[in-house]
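Protein modeling request. Please complete all fields; requests missing the sequence field cannot be processed.
Requester role: graduate student
Desired output: 3D structure, token encoding
Chains: 1
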Amino acid sequence: MSDTVESLVLDLLEWVGPGTRPYAEVMEAWRTSCPRLPVWEETDRRGFVTRHHDPGGGAMVSVSPAGREHLRRHRAPVAH
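Delivered output (80 residues):
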């Protein structure tokens, strides 16, 4: 995978963050038809995100344990 996609995978994981986001919001922001930038597809394929149903909230996305570990290894936390 290209360095650009690798960097964007990390951006997506940071964007989802420690909580959850609605699946529709994630798809609106991260799905692409560009075959050179399959960020959502690559993140999902690697098991870095999980999809689940929140009663009353619909389909949700969160970062999986594997995604958190990948993010921890490749990005330093931002100091606030």
